[in-house]
Write a structure and sequence with these properties.
The protein is built from 17 helices and no strands. By secondary structure, the chain is mainly α.
Length: 424
């Protein structure tokens, strides 16, 4: 085992240890959020063999609606034998997610190594192992940790698809055989489909990746990628049509999310928890359509949001500008809901990472840029602007992309000794 690999293994071990230490030693006996309760409730139904439905014995708390959710994360929780009602996140869930997070550290190292060589891999693994937002997330029964690792796996696999490479002085050009590239594309599409079933926001990665393939004159791979991804999601879409009586591609929460981010009361960042006025407006909206189910109300949310956009294009444009700002700068209204300690650890870590990440990205732009990961990050930014930015949306994809970019500064030279594989 080379020295760099030993360092990466050590970083993975440290990453697992600090995640478990935070989850079991600090974040203990914490009450569940609404999303955590819903995920755990769905997991109980799946574990009991009742399917992805809310159990009858699960109490309704607060005023939030129960939408049909993507099945990936509840299935993951069900595999951990979550069968009884709980008031806090079970320890086995925290430990399992810490292991998943450690795999994410490894994937970040792999992507960093491809982009910037062994030193870049070690630097990426070291940063990812102790980066506070990634350390915190396994302590919650939320989909971010699982989604992060699945999305990184898709970006890593798709990053090996190489059909045409440009020669550069001093570089080693590696070409993946055409048949193998098709197989890799299919595997990457399958992982993308799994990612969508964990977190539907990954749907927006599909057109970004396909457009890149077409631009690189690999239309056949783009078609294969799109078709296999949609085929991976299709069985769940068919199930939704049977259960809800209407087309629901993955989850039925898109309408209220779009309405939340495109509303005259929207502030440009954060959900309704950070905006009481918007929450009251949403309750009034539901009262006007009290005879409908959440799934039946979904298109009505879209309709009202688009109507406001058409009537007030200037106000909506200003709102988009605020969304772009808050996507980059962690100063939105939702951050005030956290303690100062959390704000310093989370937003502070992100702000420290941002400058070297921008410098590293500039260095990588003409070398072995992690294009697949960057496209995934770009699609996440797009989602934040279309809907609304929030820290939980940023952490799984944008922060790992920044870590890989920052790690490029640790490379002595631009990947001259290890060769380079272009992405997608």
């Amino acid at each position: 085992m080379t020295r760099s690999r030993r360092w990466i293994v050590a970083a993975i071990a440290v990453g697992f240890a600090v995640r478990v230490a935070f989850a079991l030693g600090y974040w203990v006996e914490q009450p569940l959020t609404h999303d955590e309760r819903e995920y755990l409730a769905l997991a109980r139904s799946i574990a009991r063999g009742d399917g992805v439905v809310y159990p009858a014995d699960e109490p309704v708390t607060g005023t939030a609606q129960r939408f049909g959710r993507a099945p990936g994360y509840p299935v993951f929780l069900a595999m951990l034998h979550v069968t009884q009602p709980v008031d806090t996140v079970p320890a086995r869930v925290k430990i399992a997610q810490s292991a998943v997070g450690a795999i994410g550290v490894w994937l970040i190292a792999l992507i960093g190594g491809r982009a910037a060589g062994p030193r870049g891999a070690v630097a990426a693994a070291g940063i990812a192992a102790v980066y506070p937002p990634l350390v915190f997330m396994p302590a919650y029964a939320l989909s971010e940790t699982l989604y992060c690792t699945v999305a990184l796996a898709a970006a890593w696999v798709l990053g090996t698809v190489t059909l045409t490479l440009s020669e550069r002085p001093g570089s080693v050009t590696v070409t993946v055989p055409n048949r193998k590239s098709v197989t890799v594309t299919v595997l990457g599409a399958g992982l993308t489909g799994i990612g969508i079933l964990v977190r539907p926001a990954m749907l927006f990665f599909v057109p970004f990746a396909a457009a890149w393939m077409v631009w690189k004159r690999e239309t056949r791979h783009a078609v294969i990628f799109v078709l296999v991804t949609l085929a991976s999601v299709a069985p769940w879409t068919v199930r939704n049509a049977r259960v809800h009586g209407r087309f629901v591609l993955v989850a039925s929460e898109g309408g209220v999310t779009f309405w939340t981010g495109n509303n005259p009361l929207a502030r440009g960042e954060g959900d309704m928890a950070a905006n009481p006025e918007l929450k009251r407006a949403e309750l009034e909206f539901r009262n006007r359509h009290a005879d409908l189910t959440p799934e039946q109300r979904e298109p009505l949310y879209y309709r009202e949001a688009f109507a406001w956009i058409r009537r007030h294009p200037a106000q909506w444009t200003a709102l988009l500008a605020r969304k772009v700002f808050y996507t980059i700068v962690p100063l939105g209204p939702s951050y005030t809901l956290h303690s100062k300690k959390y704000l310093v650890a989370s937003a502070g870590a992100y702000l420290l990472l941002l400058p070297p990440a921008l410098a590293g990205a500039w260095r990588l732009r003409r070398g072995c840029a992690p294009v697949a990961l960057w496209l995934l990050a770009a699609s996440t930014v797009f989602v934040s602007v279309v809907f609304f930015p929030q820290e939980r949306f940023r952490i799984p994809v944008i922060d790992p992309a920044l870590i890989v970019s920052a790690a490029a500064l640790a490379a002595a030279r631009s990947h001259e000794h290890t060769g380079c594989r272009s992405n997608l």
